[in-house]
Structures are given as C-alpha cells and as structure tokens.
C-alpha cells in the first residue's frame, strides 16, 4: 500500500526527521517535509523530499499562494503533494516514531466502540490518571457519565495514535499538572456517531477515502487549527457511515520549546467555543454518502465563517483545497 509521511518544519534535519527518513527508505514510504520562510536554504536529508517555500509556490497551485507563510497550515501543501498515495501518515518534527508507527492500521477491523455521550475523553481508555486531550470541552471534563461500550466492526479511515512523555494536552494541563506522562497499553477504540473527541495533526493516519477532510484551516489559531479540523472531520465521517479510531502509543514526544502562556492565549478561542462549535456542527444539515464529502466540507466551513469562528478569508482557501484535492 503506497504510503506517504508528511511533516512541516522550519528546523534543519534533526534526530526525529533523520529517524523518519531512515525508516521511510527501508519501507519505501514517501517522506515529505514542508518548509517555510525560516527553513534552512541548504536543507538536505536522504530519504526525504523537502519542499521549500519557493517550490511550494510553483508546485502547490492556487492554495500554496493563498496560505499564509510562517504558518503551520503550510502542511496542507504536503497533503496535496501526497494525494495519490493510499495512506497519508502525519506527525511533527519533535515526535520520535516507535517501531510500529509506520504500520498502517486496517481500514476495517473489529474494535471496542464508545458512544452515547456528546464528548468522550478517549485518554481515559489508556490511563486511570486525570488527563485530557487538547481541544476537549472543559465544561465536560468533570462529567460522571460513562460511555456505552460495545464491540463492532467499523470502517475507520482516520486513526489517531497517542504520545508518551509529552502527550497532546492543552496549556491548562501543562501549567497545572505533572509531566512527563506515560499511557498504559490498551486495545484500539472507536467513537460511535454523535460522540466527539478531538484528534490532532501530530500522529495520525488517513486512508485515501478521507483525504478531503485533511484540510487545516488557516484562519484558526496555531493551537486550534487541527482541533477544529478534527471536529469537522468527525461530523462528516458520520454522514458516510465511517468512524474515528484511537490506537495506543506509537510515538514519544521530545517537545520543542513552547511559551505556555502563548499556547494558552492561542487556545482561548477553543476553551470558549469548542462545545458551541460541536453543537453547531450537529445542527448543520448535511447530505449522507461519500459523494457529498466536498459539499459537506464547504457547508461546514461556511458555517464556521458565518459564526465568526473563522475569517471570511478561509473560504477562498478551502475552495482552492477542494479543487486541487479532487483534480
């Protein structure tokens, strides 16, 4: 199965990228690193295709010219360059892949399923400690309700893995609770329709049927772009009878330097609006079936703009994305 790995980075080849490149060579995986204006001009790494900002303007079409520079959503260009693959895996330049990171989770498999709650903290399935994923609605953190549990065979074209040491948590967690953190082992779990849990762009596998949902909104904050993408993707998955799956730890994160107060500032819009965004997505009338993926995606983004969660500048970019991804 033809697979690509997509990362965006402004760093020179570091130990994470070198480890990824070595495995990609061994396994025949396309490794794409999307650069930006601060990337080193002499970036060179065997086993990796580095796309400079100038090359993006030439290769990336209309979307590359519309996307802001010095911005994480340059990663969208990498997705487009990998769109002919059957699976796109994505991570960040501070996640060390474990040996099984590159194993492609099956599209259809029996899985433990969770449902019947509007928000489900999947981290609880892999630990008894108090922890939650970045983007989880804070007003649901103390819920005493337990999700329903069953075993089903589901189509799961989006698969999120977990990270040890520095898992994907929000600034409130990082400012108030201890790290590093280790998850327990556990079987994969999937969410039923109408149950949300945020997933990120740091450790995720996408089967080609869901590639259109990869789009990262450029007018969201750095800390919310992949989170808001995750809510939109989950809402649209259900229109196709598909689901989101979480697997256990397959990376360890040696986190890049962050200003936690700046992270907190970037997350405020999420703290205030994540629950309302999910409610609005649930209320949105969408068409059922995979042939309506593009129409549903655009409808979600029009709603996000109408509600002022995203800027009107988002619409030309998501339109360009759809045009290029489906070409």
Rg, Cα atoms, Å: 18 Å
Spans where pLDDT lies below 50 across 5 or more residues: none
DSSP helical segment count: 9
Helix content bin? 25-40%
Strand content: 15-25%
What sequence of helices (H) and strands (E) makes up the elements? EHEEHHHEEEEEHEEHEHHH
Largest sheet: 11 strands, mixed
What's the shape? globular
Strands, total number: 11
Query: Mean pLDDT, nearest integer?
Result: 96
Distance between the termini: 21 Å
Determine the structural class based on helices, strands and strand pairing.
Answer: alpha/beta
Can you walk me through this structure?
45% of the residues are buried. The mean pLDDT is 96. By secondary structure, the protein is α/β, with parallel strands linked by helices. Strand 1, helix 1 (15-27) and strand 2 form a beta-alpha-beta unit. 32% of the residues lie in helices and 19% in strands. It has nine helices and eleven strands.
Overview in brief:
The protein has 327 residues and is an alpha/beta fold. It has helices spanning 15-27, 53-59, 61-66, 75-81, 171-176, 225-239, 260-283, 293-306, 314-325; strands at 3-8, 30-34, 49-51, 87-91, 95-97, 108-115, 148-155, 158-164, 189-191, 203-207, 244-253.
